[in-house]
Amino acid sequence: MPAIIGALVAALFSALRTYLPGILGRVLLAFGIGFVTHTVAMPALKSFVMSNMGALPQVLYGYVDATGLGVAVTIILSAWLGNQTQRVVLSKLGG
Q: Does some domain include residue 12?
């Protein structure tokens, strides 16, 4: 039984060594970047946008809130921020 487990672990490490630098590594990197961006950078960016929206009149702010434009802006900013973070990380890793 230990020989089977050892062989499975060796096969797993071999597969990771083969596929991690390729597409699987980029997918895992994107998930990690997305998580960090969502928990660290996005709250600061959202507070910046909300502080600048404080200058809007109440009626216009109500329209923005009712139409769901705030959610759309959050999605767009999140995608942009994730893309920029991935570009910076990949340039530092040399990929």
A: no
- How many structural domains is the chain composed of? 1
Domain annotation covers residue 89: yes
Per-position pLDDT tens, the chain of length 95 = 778 888 888 887 777 677 666 777 777 777 877 787 778 877 887 788 778 877 878 888 788 878 888 788 888 888 888 788 778 777 776 65
Q: Is 0.70 topped by the overall pTM?
A: no
Q: Which domain holds residue 76?
A: 25-93
Q: Give how far Cα 93 sits from Cα of 27, 51, 87, 90, Å.
A: 15, 35, 10, 5
